[in-house]
Amino acid sequence: MTDDTIKEVLKRIPYGFYAITSRSGDDVNAMVANWVMQTSFSPRQVALGLEKVSYTYGLIEKGGVFAINIFLKDGADALKPFMKGRSKNPDKMKDIQYSEGPETGSPILESAAAYLECRVVRIVDTGGDHDTVIGGVVAAGVSSPGEVGDTLSLPDLGWSYAG
Questions:
Q1: Residue at 163 is within a domain
Q2: For residue 74, what are the domain limits?
Q3: 24: CB partners within 8 A, 6+ apart
């Protein structure tokens, strides 16, 4: 228990742990993220909270596309190359196995269990350090069968990114 009840309660919201890939021209990137959710059935849309100063933010803003790469619990190690920002690891995509998404060209990581390809619908300036990117889902794929309980999450790693 802390003196910051809001922070304590926000940390109780369970989050998945994903790799967000993006493309603008020939420039591609991947980063880890956890603030991802579906926001509409029709049309199918998702939203992600994205730090304004991240390299991926700039690529998504310029390129207008991104992919959400979803991993199973036993795939946590596959996310390690994406945990450092582009400024600390400028060549992080150099040895990564991926294909271009059929609809957006966004990188689809070979190690992902499933993916969603998205086109940016809107970027909402929240007035905070993260903005909300709303994407229309235009394609999806599954390379490893699984259920929602099999998907990697922050609690599986013992991590928290909230508060």
A1: no
A2: 5-157
A3: 58, 59, 60, 62, 63
